Amino acid sequence: MHEESVAKDDVAARGGLSRIPAQADMDAGFTFDAKVASHQLLELAAVERVICVDDWYAEKEDDGEGVLAALAEGALLAADREKIADIIPEVTLLRDASAPLELVLDEMRDAWTSLDSSKRKAIRQIADDRLGSEGVGLPGEEDEPAAACLRGLLADSREFLTLSLSDWRKQRTTLLADGKSTLILFDRDFSREGASQNAGEEQISALLHDAPDSWRIGLLTHTVSPDDAEVEAWKTLSQQFDADSSRFLVIAKGRLSLTADGFPRMLKLTLLAPALERLQGGLAEAVSGTWAEAIEKVGLINPYTLEAALNGDRLTDGTWGPETLLRIATAFTQDSVRAKLRADRTVHASSELVTSLSRVKMPSTSNSDRVRQELANIERLEYFESADHLTELHFPLEVGDVFAFQKFVEKPHQFEKRHYERGSAAGNVASELRRSGAVHHMILLAQPCDLAVRADGKRGNGLEFVRLAPLKSPAIGRVITHPGGGVATSFDLPFFFEESGGGVEVKLSQQHYVPLTALDMCVLSASGDAFMATEQEMPDHVLPNWQERFKFLRTWVAKQVEAYKVMEPHGMPGRAADQITAALTGTVASPKLEALISLSQSAITYGVKRVGRLREPYRSALLSRMAQRDSRDAFDPSLIDKTNA
Length: 645
Known about the structure:
By secondary structure, the chain is of the alpha+beta class.
């Protein structure tokens, strides 16, 4: 179920690819306050202290080199030099355009050391006005807005410490020992204090081993953008740190704003990360131990009971034995896991923190493409079974099976003529068949009892054709978010497409009928394609009833191939071979399904493949919707034309 398999006309109709369902927008009247949200998060997480470690907080030496460089490069005009001379009249050479530049710079450098901060700032401002966005400023002034915003967001709610790296090293032992629940945020680059550009990472690595469990750690940096780059940086550092990586997160300084929700969201995640890790660990421990217990309980089932569970109706209906064992083990497991989780105080505490922090109201913004894609992949597992085990284990047909239909490049008369001319030298026709054009997906709609194969390899109802409904992408602008939907003539299925995560509509009003022989061949094929040859061997893992079905179909294929051969289709004029093929394979009334008969291989191939299965309870819900549509009441049309209403 890949995106490229969507029908071309369907793509054109909707103007693009399906989309992963996004979160709904918050009410327009909601006004978000990042400061209030940050305070609430710290309060609910019981954080007593916030520490920010950044070389911005170190004492900065202002030697005027930026202004001197602007003078040396001739970036300042005569008017700018006059303004500076007005501020420091003792620098007389500034007004003398003929004075050597080296003497002007020496005089300025000597005077700068005796200037107070207000005069230095005024001179830098003159240079900044001339240089624009490339102004001289103080070293590291790019950190000033971030530092100011961080103080504005967090300083009023808790004890708030701002430390340089040297200050942190001096106070580290005392701060770690005082027992206060702490959020500590490190800058990454401390080169202005003579340390490395990765000194923040080095401090976090050590802190992950030494800090109490009540400490939460963040790497606050300009070097990543506020998007998936944070996640990639975190993954890289997690591999480097030999410690619990859930206790720290990477936060882009670009998220800092008094109005935007980016920083509060990352603050929330930083506070929650250890709790989420504990929840995962608690579940893993409960499941691991309980599965062992469940397997042991399955092993204690006596042979009489187990034989009854694996046979009877389950075998007749085509249930694979290990699937029944899994059902029994799951029954043993589920209640036991829940009991263990309920008894785990750590799980309770972590869950309560997650619930508590979720009360902080934030704007509903769409998750990043990466996050939404990961969530979509998980949800797909809840909705659809992949084709792999269906194919390898030859699972019988079931309502909700998904099939991909595609046309062949050659029509029967072209195909047979080419292979007849090549004679017995032809290779494996099944592997040589070329398909073209769009792939159309359809889903099987039939009562399970009608699909069941009996012990003789036949169906009790003599069913020869079965109906399927096409899967179509929704109209432009419509995103499918939930299964079902309110329209009686369709059924929504989210997360159908593997790459985009977009959903489809099952068009119940556009049903098609196809021969069951084609779909049965998909079950009995090693690849899931509808192919069978008269010399084909019985595949492994086929259930007893379907072993008989295999023999029945192989005999049927031999008869159809022989009937086709007698007519010598390669010598027929026009497209008679196409019509004969459709009649022999039952595809006359199936416009989406094509078939080819190969005399050289004594085989029949249909242009269909089983590619997945809708899981319960969704396939039962789909069947119910189909039944509702079939049994809907009919009414006489209104006497008033709708167009004239």
